[in-house]
Structures are given as structure tokens and as C-alpha cells.
Design goal:
single chain, mainly beta, Immunoglobulin-like, 36 strands, extended, cytoplasm, CS_dom
Length: 502
């Protein structure tokens, strides 16, 4: 339906611009229909049964807007919703990339939820055959993960994909890719048992190597130098060879054969007290085993950084984190989300950022020519980030801050949607029913105001507004523009005027 606004918040009578061609009420496992505006004149639409439509909408927003016209439609398997879509020109060809989101049963997952999440990246291009222009699918790629992504968007050029999710996503190989993979690669990919095990104290390092049955003492050669080690068995290539992480007293180093047919090598550290993060520089064939007493030693040395005990002495240097100062909304999920960028050609991850204690809040389109922005909580504030796919050095730019919004939204237990104006003039959130909260950015005061406690003059104030809808129906949609806030319930579309237009 097309609705036009007049007199600030009045809506004209809705006008139908498109109707799905088939009756869908009989379809099993049908999802809600979903729509995404790929460009000012194109729309992608899912009917919830697994069919994708590409529609020419004409220039939307005109009072004389025409009926929408189907340019392409195809059945793409199990039902999906559209997560994102983007229209672009590549090699003088009009193309469109769509991201389809599915939650599917996973028969192999017996320990987890029993489901997995797939994101299918479909590329459609306008092909000209014998003077007839038609759209066809030219590429389909599938990513799989174990959590629904908070944010998933295709770059404006169609060259990459960005995902914010709790659990990682990875591209699934197609059958043709699997056939190309040769046996050598498979052998390399198989996880091997460690070649050697090593332990350390503050003074020495002990290496244990399991020996084949027929090896005797005469077959073993161990060469020590201040910075290197070399171990060979019979006339074979060296079993261990390379530069040690740190210098050793090579004249005091020894080796013996244990009764269980293992070779034990003792290295005496030159720099006592230092812990080695690795044994031989760059060698990943060994496994470090930590002694239980060392574990408790390290835990004790880090105790001042974190503690469950209340702080008995706040004046003491390096006090533990005091749980008395934490509030419920400061608690973060243990497994923080990560932000990944995938390259569209190699299908490899080019950037990965662990968001840790910066939870995802919402996303918003600030500039239609750029990817959607995403908002993260940073301490008590909320920071808005704009992805720039064409700037590898400045891939994510901080463009706005909403003071204290991170703290405020965490205290709203019943919140359902969050949004902000594209010009950052306000942020808003709504509860499941009735209430909408609007948080304006700080503005200069026309009158003089003093902080009574501190006695200083206050230059600007941020206002909070609360709107109560005249409806008890659940809120289903929430969208912010610079002037208005749109709130959709099951029966009514509400318009809240927040700012007056220029």
C-alpha cells in the first residue's frame, strides 16, 4: 500500500500498488512476507513461501505513483525472509544482490539447538538475449552459522558482505568446489597429533617426544646451542629444528630415554623467571601442557584485576573490581558478538573484530548510497558506525554519539525496537505495547541554568519525551525519519511529529 502524508501528520487513504499474484493461505510453514527497497525504483519481495520477486516500482513518493511491475520471480527453495538487498552496475550490467535468511532444522546437531541459520547471497543480473531484456540469477552462495545475525548487509558495490553475529558464519562449499579440492589439501586439513609436548617452570623447559618402537639410544642425536635445538632420529630429516624462543645455557642442557619409550629433553633457561609463549619460533607442531600449580600461580598473580570478593580496602592500590558498583544493566553476555567482512570473490574473511563488551543495539540507513549504519553500546553511551567498503584503512567510521543511551536502553526491560533519525537529532525506542521514548540530542539553552550541586552553569540540556499510543495492540514496526517517527501496530499506523521540517 502507498500512503502519502499531508498537513504534517495526516495520512491520505491507502492506495494499493502491488498484490501478490497467488493465494498463499494454503501454504505450510509459510513465513511473513518481507520487503526491501534495493534502489529508488526497485523493490525485492519475498512472499514467505520461498519465492523471490524483483519489482520495478517507478520513482516512489510521487503522488501519481504507478502500479508496481514484476521484473523477475523464481522459486528458491525453503521459505526465507530478505535480510538486505542492493542494486548496482557492474561491467555495464544492471545487477542486484539479495541476502536471504533462513532458519533450518539441522539433523546432525544433536547437542545444540537442533537448528542452523543460513544466509544465501543471490546475485541477479539483467541479461539481453535477442533484443529482449530479462533478469536471471548468475550466482548463488550460502553461508552457515549457529545464531541469527544482528546485522547482515551487502556492500553497495556488491563486492563484499558484513555480518555482526554472536556465532561465526562461514561459506559452505558447493559440490564443484569440493571436487576441485585435491587429496593433498585434505591431508593438510586433517588434524594431526602433536609431534612433541612441552612444559616449563621459571628455570627450565622440559620436552617430551614419543619414540617409534625400534629406535635405540644410538639412533638419537640432540644438538644444543645457546639459541637453537636440533633433534634427529637415525638418518631421517630433523624431527625438531629451529630457533628457540629465548636463550638457554646449552652446556647444562640434557636428554634421557624414559622407560615408556619417550625422549625427555631438559633445557635450562638463561633468563630465569620469564615465561615462553612458544618453544621453537614459528613451530606449531608441539603442544604446551600447563602444570596445575602453575595455573593457580597465574590466577593469583591476576587476582587484583578481577574478583568476586567485595573490595575490603578501597584505598589499596590495584583494587579488585567491586561488584557493589555494578548494576544489572552493566552485565554483558559472556560470548560477545563479532563483526566480520567477507570478500565476494575469494569468499574469505578479510576483517574480523571482536565486539566484546560492546553489544549491538540497532541499525539505520543514514545515507542511501552507503551501507546501513550499526549502533553499538560503548560503556554508557551508544555510538553509531558507518561502514565504508571502499576504504580498507577506514572501514568503519564513527559518525555520531548518543550520550547515555546505552545505559538508558539497558534499563528498559520491555523494549522491542530502537531507531535514530538519519541526521542523528534524536534516538527512540518503543516497548511491546503503547509507550514510545524519544531522546533528543543536547541543545543550547536560551535561559541561564545552574547545577545546584556543583554550582556551575549548564550550557545545554538533552530532553527525553514519552509518547503513549492510544492503542493496546502490539507494536509491529518502528521507523524514524528526521521529522517524524512511524509506529505500526496490528491495526493502526501512528505518526509522531518529533522535529519541524526546515
Amino acid at each position: 500500500m502507498l500512503l502519502l502524508i499531508f498537513m504534517d501528520t495526516a495520512l491520505q487513504k491507502p492506495r494499493e500498488v502491488f498484490r501478490l499474484p497467488s493465494d498463499l493461505t494454503a501454504c505450510d510453514n509459510r513465513l511473513c512476507a518481507s520487503i526491501h527497497f534495493s534502489s529508488p525504483t526497485q523493490v525485492t519481495l519475498s512472499d514467505g513461501t520461498g519465492r523471490l520477486y524483483l519489482i520495478k516500482s517507478g520513482k516512489r513518493g510521487n503522488s501519481a505513483s504507478e502500479k508496481w511491475e514484476i521484473m523477475f520471480n523464481e522459486e528458491l527453495g525453503s521459505p526465507f525472509i530478505i535480510a538486505h538487498s542492493v542494486s548496482f552496475v557492474k561491467s555495464d550490467t544492471n545487477s542486484l544482490a539479495v541476502l536471504l535468511l533462513r532458519v533450518e532444522k539441522d539433523e546432525l546437531d544433536t547437542k545444540g539447538s537442533g537448528f542452523h541459520v543460513t544466509l544465501e547471497w543471490v546475485t541477479i543480473a539483467e541479461i539481453s538475449k535477442e533484443g529482449v531484456h530479462k533478469y536471471e540469477i548468475i550466482k548463488r552462495r550460502v553461508l552457515q552459522g549457529k545464531s541469527v545475525p544482528h546485522y547482515a548487509a551487502i556492500e553497495q558495490s556488491g563486492g563484499g558482505l558484513m555480518i555482526v553475529s554472536h556465532k561465526p558464519f562461514k561459506f559452505m562449499e558447493s559440490e564443484s568446489d569440493k571436487l576441485e579440492e585435491n587429496d593433498d589439501t585434505k591431508i593438510l586439513n586433517e588434524k594431526k597429533d602433536p609431534l612433541y609436548y612441552w612444559q616449563q617452570t621459571e628455570d627450565d623447559v622440559t620436552i617430551t617426544v614419543h619414540l617409534p618402537q625400534d629406535i635405540t639410544k644410538d639412533d638419537i642425536k640432540v644438538h644444543f646451542s645457546p639459541d637453537n635445538i636440533c633433534v634427529t632420529l637415525r638418518d631421517q630429516p630433523p624431527l625438531m629444528e629451529g630457533k628457540l624462543y629465548s636463550s638457554v645455557d646449552h652446556e647444562s642442557c640434557t636428554w634421557i630415554i624414559r622407560e615408556n619409550k619417550s625422549l625427555e629433553i631438559s633445557l635450562i633457561k638463561k633468563n630465569e623467571g620469564s615465561r615462553w609463549p612458544e618453544l621453537i619460533v614459528g613451530d606449531t607442531r608441539g603442544e604446551f601442557i600447563m602444570d596445575p600449580s602453575q595455573c593457580s600461580e597465574i590466577a593469583e598473580s591476576l587476582m587484583h584485576l578481577t574478583s568476586e570478593v567485595m573490595n575490603p580496602n578501597p584505598e589499596k592500590e590495584k583494587p579488585p573490581c567491586n561488584a557493589q558498583e555494578l548494576e544489572e544493566c552493566d552485565a554483558f553476555l559472556e560470548d560477545g558478538a563479532s563483526l566480520c567482512r567477507f570478500d565476494g570473490d575469494t569468499l574469505k574473511v578479510t576483517h574480523i573484530i571482536n565486539l566484546g563488551s560492546n553489544p549491538y543495539l540497532f541499525s539505520v540507513v543514514v545515507n542511501p548510497r552507503e551501507m546501513p549504519c550499526f549502533c553499538l553500546r560503548h560503556d554508557v553511551d551508544a555510538l553509531l558506525w558507518q561502514p565504508h567498503s571502499d576504504q580498507p584503512e577506514n572501514m568503519w567510521e564513527h559518525i555520531a554519539t548518543f550520550n547515555a543511551l546505552g545505559y538508558v536502553q539497558a534499563s528498559k526491560q520491555d523494549k522491542k525496537f530502537m531507531a535514530c533519525a538519519p541526521d542523528y537529532s534524536y534516538a527512540a525506542l518503543c516497548e511491546c505495547l503503547r509507550r514510545v521514548f524519544i531522546y533528543r540530542q543536547p541543545t543550547p539553552l536560551a535561559t541561564v541554568l545552574y547545577n545546584r550541586k556543583e554550582g556551575r552553569q549548564v550550557g545545554q540540556v538533552a530532553k527525553q519525551l514519552v509518547a503513549t499510543l492510544e492503542s493496546n495492540d502490539p507494536i509491529l514496526g518502528f521507523q524514524a525519519t528526521n521529522e517524524r517517527l512511524f509506529v505500526l501496530t496490528t491495526k493502526t499506523l501512528f505518526l509522531i511529529k518529533v522535529n519541524s521540517g526546515n
